[in-house]
Hints:
Helix content is 23%, strand content 32%.
Amino acid sequence: MKKLLATAIVATVLAMSCLSRNPTIEVYRDRFQSVTYYDIEKFSENLKTESINISRNEKRMLEDGDILVYLTDQNRLRKMLILELDRDNRGFMFFDFVTYDENGLVFIENKYVKLQASNIFDFDKGIIPEKTEGVELWWHNLDDVEMYLVPWNPAKLGKYPTAGLN
């Protein structure tokens, strides 16, 4: 009887765990993990100081599951996974990121970071700073529709090509 009860409890816990996970996010994260430091180092020659349009219209250039590559103001390469971008026009973005040191080792890593519209982020420290010093990313809202992810100079950024990633 105790064995049956223990089995039932384990089965219930496993079922609840599976339900609480978002399988789409797990697929995104698997794909994100497959992008190595070598991959982003090779891609880094394509990085630019130009903004990426994330407006609430047909001009939007990013979607959930997209990967951005970044060169921070400290010359560290970083990759960022968009988990959720402004879903239901709530003005929030959730993302995972990994910042590497100059040897390709993980310098800082964070999951499910929440960034609100009009805020800034420092990927070298993994924080939303109080001051603009060290900032690499700004979610710039021009109005309720037009929005951009802006690399804070001298940072550079680019959308990583995810076609062909499994």
